[in-house]
Amino acid sequence: VVSIAAGANMNASRLLMPLAFASSMGGMMTLIGTTPNLVIQNTLTKGGYAPLGFFSFTPVGIVCVTVGLLVLIPLSKWLLSKSEAQSKSRPRVKSLKNLSDEYRLFQNLYRARVRRASKAVGSTVAHWNLRQAYGLNIMEVRRIDGPHARFFASVTQKLPTPDTVLREGDILYLRGPFENAQAFAAEAGLELLDTHAMEEAASGDDRPLEFYDIGIAEMLIVSSSKLVNQTVGLSALRTDYGINVLGIRRKKEYLLNDLRDEKIHANDVLLVQGKWADIDRLSQDEDDWVVLGQPLEEASKVTLEYKAPLAALLMVGMVAAMAIDAIPVAPVTAVLVAAILAIMTGCVRNMQTAYKMINWESIVLIGGMLPMSLALEKSGASDMLSQSLVSGVGAYGPMALLAVVYFTTSLMTMFLSNTATAVLMAPIAMAAAIGIDASPYPFLFAVTVGASMCFSSPFSTPPNALVMAAGQYSFMDYVKVGAPLQIIMGLVMIVALPLLFPF
């Protein structure tokens, strides 16, 4: 969304809060869309009631999305209007695309594929003496492993060494004059994929320069560095760290060609290329240089696009296993199997990445609140609270009690997470419904909707918190946009829930 906003020359804050709110509203569509839905499902089954189906939430979700769109579009237009000067005042970490553009990596970059009948098959990189014979640098060798079907293919990026043996199907990334790349392709029998100076125009199956295994980063040479006054070729960055130097920024000047014999000066900024693990190793040595930005964080943002079809298939299979009653697989089993297959098939970069994707704060929070809910039940606090609701509001009818349950849940979610609120309120709502001889379903739906549709606080739901820094929002921004939406959503739901789930 940030990229779309930049491309449309508009402020991302106009879009990020609606994005967060829309994800919460869309989560009401299915059983697994948001955690409070699973909480009320567990409360119903423990109470001996029929469990909800995978799409039992869909009518409620449709109402949420409809109301949200009608209210949010004008509200966000009127109230989310931060000035461009304010948005540009924030310090910005250079992304991989920013670095590529700044150092013009795509300029004079060409790709050549090794064909079956090519002379290059079985030869080494050193055999072709590219620098001296053709004035070319080879930046990367990209290799597609596994089955020929793109669906299951796996892409490997290699930093070429003199001993790298070329295989059929390898794609060589060459930098230098186009005429030289053309001459080398003709001599070696390669298929030149690009006939233009900018690789960005490539499309279809031809993959542009990506950073799956190999990344780039900037490093600042400190004045006391042992690299000062050494040439790039003698700097030992390649031998000691497996790092290539792609460019040098010296004050306002960029040096991009014939760097091997260029001397390194103090305060030079070097654009380096290497495996992400080697760049991480480089950042740990701070005596001679400082690695700028957050390269490992940038690496975590790199998506493995070639795995997208397989990841989509795994997700569809997981949802189908949970949604279709004829498939005898428990939801937790379907999720775990899909997660394991995603790791085994390479859709997730590595186990470290998989562990980082787990929101441990939420797990600890839920783990702590479940015993709290049990304590409320065993100590009689839940019964006392539900009886207070029944005696205080029950006389005015189930509609009034439903309204109190909904807005109490909504209010609590402003101070607790939506999951914690649902865990605490679900047994109270069920006991209150039973106390007036009403069906617990509308009351429990009031709990999950009230917990999930809390928009007035940046801390009530994970999506709200996620966009706060990126959109440069203040707490009052959530109040201005979220509070009216939250109140209107509550009023609509108090009317809609009894129609969808009668008392």
Secondary structure blueprint with pairings:
Elements: H1 2-7, H2 13-26, H3 35-46, H4 58-79, H5 84-88, H6 96-102, E1 109-114, H7 125-128, H8 130-134, E2 137-145, E3 154-158, E4 171-175, H9 178-188, E5 190-192, E6 214-221, H10 237-241, E7 244-250, E8 253-255, E9 269-275, H11 276-283, E10 289-291, H12 295-301, H13 308-323, H14 331-344, H15 351-357, H16 360-379, H17 381-393, H18 398-412, H19 418-435, H20 440-452, H21 462-470, H22 475-500
Antiparallel strand pairs: 1-4, 1-5, 2-3, 2-4, 6-9, 6-10, 7-8, 7-9
Your description of this structure?
This protein has 22 helices and 10 strands. It has a 5-stranded antiparallel beta sheet with strand order 3-2-4-1-5, covered by helices on one side. Strands 8-7-9-6-10 form a 5-stranded antiparallel beta sheet. About 4% of the residues have low confidence. By secondary structure, it is of the alpha+beta class.
- The whole-number mean of residue pLDDT values reads 82
Strand content: 5-15%
Radius of gyration: 29 Å
Could you give the order of strands across the largest sheet?
A: 3-2-4-1-5
Shape: elongated
Number of strands: 10
Helix coverage percent: 40-55%
User: Kindly, what is the distance between the CA atoms of the first and last residues, rounded to a whole number of angstroms?
Assistant: 42 Å
Main sheet characteristics = 5 strands, antiparallel
User: Which segments are poorly predicted (pLDDT under 50) over 5 or more consecutive residues?
Assistant: 83-91, 197-207
Oligomeric state of shown chains? single chain
Number of helices: 22
Structural class: alpha+beta
